[in-house]
Every structure is written in structure tokens, then in C-alpha cells.
Design goal:
CATH class: Mainly Alpha
Largest sheet: 2 strands, antiparallel
Order of helices and strands: HHEEHHEEHHHHHHHHHHHHHHH
Bound molecules: aspartic acid
Strand order of the largest sheet: 1-2
Distance between the termini: 28 Å
Mean pLDDT: 84
CATH architecture: Orthogonal Bundle
Radius of gyration: 22 Å
């Protein structure tokens, strides 16, 4: 039995853990304990260990991979072309995702129940006080902040505080100018950074061996927090009132990842069977699902894109770290659906101009949203303020945010990986997704 399990592909092992986690979380609920330690705490412990191990990799991996990637391209016109193509892909794919979300939410109208704005029905369960503290003082200034964060005053503190944009910007400069110095010095540095990068990939492999265990802990914790068996009434209320909203988000995410992005892979990148890419990326998608963080998933994303999809390190190390930070299709889509859902629930008839504002602000804020769990809640408050709704209204969706976060993060990561494939094809790379 153990031998059979060991020979399974990584994604099957993780799927198996997911299933086991749902069962364990359901049975354990919130309070079951042994020797005074609750299962919920044990799940949290296992999950946190795994998450921390992934996070530990981020700074050295982002540094070394971007430097190696950019230095490999050199400082000729290639780098501009690569950067331009990547940014264009990111903007267009996020815009498409938002449009899908906009169409679905206008069609399903999850905020309208029995022909009326659902405010009161959902409002009963809203608990906004703790959240309002968190978002107090936030506003459109956050978008300006994104650009300010790009240039860190202190690169060490940017690294220590996980300010990815600053880190990326500095690494890009470093890699770019490293190629321009005297040959001897450039070569020494290339060897040095390549060595660090390869070592980081090896450590990633090690951490990934524990992915089934980590995923088990993370997902079992989420399920036991909800405690569906111990609290069926709350659970069913939640499903009834927020189910339609969750369903709208979920189906829009599915449309984007099973139709829009595969069409791009097929017709823009010329991949004959785009669904091969879903298979190639499955360990990363499942990790994104259980961690709800595209930054934490980055090491796994790079591993899958290079080893399973066959994209060169040169391309992936440029496209993916940038994508994990600024390209969030799932998040952009979610922001749009959530804002319109809240507006519907409040009985606000959105004009075309207001819907356009939502699209634009969703696009911009999705660039600035960090790749960490629940990051888009703050972005949604910015949109609400822009269309004249109280920011506290975001409380309506908090109950289902975690589960939807898991789904949208997978789409965020998938879109980054599609960008890597498309750009690699444009750069003339061969052997992509041939396996
Ligand atoms: N959790 C998402 C991510 O890491 C961001 C968000 O939408 O909250 O990609």
C-alpha cells in the first residue's frame, strides 16, 4: 500500500490529501481534542510549518531567479521585448478575466433574492466591526502606493517585509547591469547567482516532498473552522445566502481557466492540446489552492513550468516572479464580481460609467494586491468607495472569502504559467508542452 502511494504522481498525492483533509476537518470540527490539544490547532501547526517553509524560499529565489534570468537575456533589445510582451499579456488576460466576471455576475444577479435586493437577508449575518478597523483610512491612495513601493528606500527592509515589487525592481536592475560590466566580473557573478538559484530549486524540491502533508494541514484547518457537522444551521444559512455569489465567482473562474486561457494557449501560442498545461501545472494549482497565496506558491510554479511544461529558465525566471506579484486574473475577476454583488445586494442600480469604474479599478488594484491570503478584501473596499458604497459592506462576503480565495489564487497562478508558455513560444522556444 505504502509502496503504491509512493509511486503516485505528485498531484495525485496532493489530491488524496485534500480529500482526507476534508474528511478529517469535518469529523474533528472546531473543538475535538486529544490530550488537551485540539485537532484544529494540530492542523494549523502542520499547515503553518509548510507555509513557512515555502515563504522561506521566496526572497532568495526571487532575487536569484530574476538576476539569472535577466542576465541571461543580456542588455540588448531582447529584454525590452520580453518585458513589453509580458506586461501586455498580463494586462489583457486580467481584462478578459474581469469581463468574464462582469458578464456572469450581471447574468446570475446573486445580490437579488426573490426579485429584491438581498441586503436584509444577508445583513443579518454581517459582522463588520473587526473588519472596519482593518480598512480604515484606505482609499484610492493605495494605487499610488503601488508605484511608490516599487522603489524601496532600503532593499534589505523590502526583503524582510516581503515587499515583492521593490525586490523585483531592484533584481531587474541588478541583472540588467550585471551583464554590462567587465567580462571577468560579470562571469564571476553569473556563476555565483546561478549557484544560488540551483540550490534554491533543490530546496524547493525538498519542501515539495512535504506538500501532501502541508496541504492536508491547511485544508483540514479551513474545514474544521467552518465546522459543518457541529454547526449545520450556520453552515446551511451560509450556503443559502452566499451560495449564489460563491457559485457566480466559481463558475466565472472556471470559464476563465477552462475556456479563455486555453483558447489563448491554442490560438496565440499554438499549443495543440492546451489541457496538457493544466496537467503539467497541477501540483502548483493544488498548492495555490491550499495556501491561498500566489507568492508562497511561486517556487512550485517555477518548478512545474520548467520541468513539466518545458519552458526555459530564462523565460520563466523573468515572467513568473513578476506574475506572482502583479498578474492576478482570479483576483481581478473576484473583485469585480464581489463589488457588483454588493451593489446589487444594496439595491444600487449601477450605471454604465460605474460599471466601467469597477472594471478599471479592479484592473489597477489587482496589480497592487499582494500574493497573500485575503489580500483582495482591501482592494474591494477601494472599489466600493469609488462607486459610493460604504466600505463596511465588504463584510457581506467575508464568510465565504477564504474558500473563494483558494479558488482565485489557483487561477492567478495558472494565468502566470500561461503567460510563461505564451512568451516562451514567442521567444522561439521549442519542446513546450510536448510531453
Ligand atoms: N490570495 C490571492 C493570491 O495570493 C490574492 C487575493 O486575491 O486575495 O493570489
Amino acid at each position: 500500500m505504502w509502496g503504491k502511494y509512493k509511486s503516485l504522481d505528485a498531484h495525485w498525492k496532493i489530491m488524496f490529501s485534500l480529500l482526507l483533509a476534508v474528511i478529517a476537518g469535518y469529523i474533528a470540527g472546531k473543538d475535538a481534542a486529544v490530550f488537551g490539544v485540539s485537532f484544529n490547532q494540530m492542523f494549523a501547526f502542520i499547515g503553518t510549518l509548510f507555509l513557512q517553509a515555502l515563504k522561506m524560499l521566496i526572497v532568495p529565489l526571487v532575487f536569484s531567479s530574476i538576476i539569472v534570468g535577466v542576465a541571461g537575456i543580456g542588455n540588448g533589445p531582447d529584454i525590452g521585448r520580453l518585458g513589453g510582451r509580458t506586461l501586455l499579456f498580463y494586462l489583457l488576460s486580467s481584462l478578459l478575466a474581469i469581463i468574464v466576471g462582469l458578464l456572469v455576475v450581471n447574468y446570475v444577479e446573486p445580490g437579488i433574492l426573490d426579485g429584491e435586493a438581498a441586503k436584509d437577508k444577508i445583513g443579518l449575518q454581517v459582522e463588520t466591526s473587526s473588519f472596519s478597523e482593518k480598512v480604515e483610512g484606505r482609499g484610492a491612495g493605495d494605487i499610488v502606493d503601488v508605484f511608490l513601493r516599487m522603489i524601496p528606500t532600503n532593499i534589505v527592509s523590502a526583503a524582510a517585509n516581503g515587499q515583492m515589487l521593490g525586490l523585483i525592481f531592484f533584481s531587474l536592475l541588478f541583472g540588467y547591469f550585471m551583464s554590462g560590466i567587465s567580462h571577468d566580473h560579470a562571469l564571476t557573478q553569473k556563476h555565483f547567482w546561478n549557484g544560488i538559484f540551483e540550490t534554491m530549486m533543490k530546496i524547493t524540491d525538498l519542501v515539495m516532498r512535504f506538500a501532501p502533508l502541508g496541504v492536508f494541514g491547511l485544508v483540514a484547518k479551513v474545514v474544521s473552522d467552518i465546522d459543518p457537522a457541529g454547526n449545520p444551521e450556520k453552515f446551511f444559512n451560509l450556503i443559502e445566502t452566499l451560495g449564489l455569489f460563491a457559485l457566480s465567482v466559481f463558475s466565472a473562474l472556471l470559464i476563465h481557466s477552462l475556456i479563455t486561457l486555453p483558447l489563448i494557449l491554442k490560438y496565440v501560442a499554438g499549443i495543440s492540446n492546451p489541457f496538457r498545461h493544466h496537467r503539467a501545472m497541477s501540483p502548483a494549482l493544488l498548492t495555490a489552492f491550499s495556501t491561498a497565496s500566489s507568492s508562497a506558491t511561486l517556487p512550485v510554479t517555477m518548478d512545474c513550468v520548467e520541468k513539466n511544461a518545458g519552458v526555459s529558465n530564462k523565460t520563466s525566471s523573468f515572467v513568473l516572479p513578476l506574475g506572482a506579484t502583479i498578474n492576478m486574473d482570479g483576483t481581478a475577476l473576484y473583485e469585480c464580481v464581489a463589488a457588483i454583488f454588493i451593489a446589487q445586494a444594496y439595491g444600487l442600480d449601477l450605471s454604465f460609467a460605474q460599471q466601467f469604474t469597477i472594471v478599471l479599478v479592479a484592473l489597477l488594484t489587482s496589480i497592487g494586491v499582494a500574493g497573500i491570503p485575503s489580500a483582495s478584501l482591501v482592494a474591494i473596499t477601494i472599489i466600493l468607495a469609488a462607486i459610493g458604497l460604504p466600505m463596511e459592506a465588504v463584510g457581506l462576503i467575508i464568510a465565504v472569502d477564504r474558500v473563494l480565495d483558494m479558488c482565485r489564487t489557483s487561477v492567478n497562478v495558472f494565468s502566470d504559467s500561461c503567460a510563461a508558455v505564451v512568451i516562451a513560444k514567442f521567444q522561439g522556444e521549442k519542446n513546450i508542452l510536448t510531453k
